[in-house]
Amino acid sequence: MALNVLQYGIIIMCLILVFAFIHLGVSIGILVNNRGYGDMFRLEIGLSAYNIVISFLGIVVGGDGLFCVLTRQNILGKFQFIL
Question: Where are the domains of the chain?
């Protein structure tokens, strides 16, 4: 059974969204566990804050990509390619 391009796009964008949410949860968990130490510039806390930003970017890319695939918007798909 062969999958067409639309099904591949839906699967890949859903995987990006799932991994971005998992990444966000892990980053928030690390940040919460290390918040009692008080210094924002410690390596673990700084990397977790950076990972939260990357997670939100993944959510935006995955959500926009899934919207583009489902509505077949070519112009938004080109914007997605730039991201």
Answer: 5-82
This model's pTM is above 0.70: yes
User: Which region, left, alpha or beta, applies to residue 38 given φ > 0 means left and ψ of -120 to 50 means alpha?
Assistant: left
Single out the residue of 71, 80, 60 nearest to residue 17, CA to CA: 60
Report d(CA 41, CA 75) in Å as an integer.
40
Cα of 27 vs its chain's centroid, Å: 12
d(CA 53, CA 80): 18
Q: Please, are residues 83 and 60 in contact by the beta-carbon 8 Å criterion? A: yes
DSSP classification of residue 36: G
Count of CB atoms situated within 10 Å of the CB of 76: 15
The confidence score (pLDDT) of residue 20 equals: 92
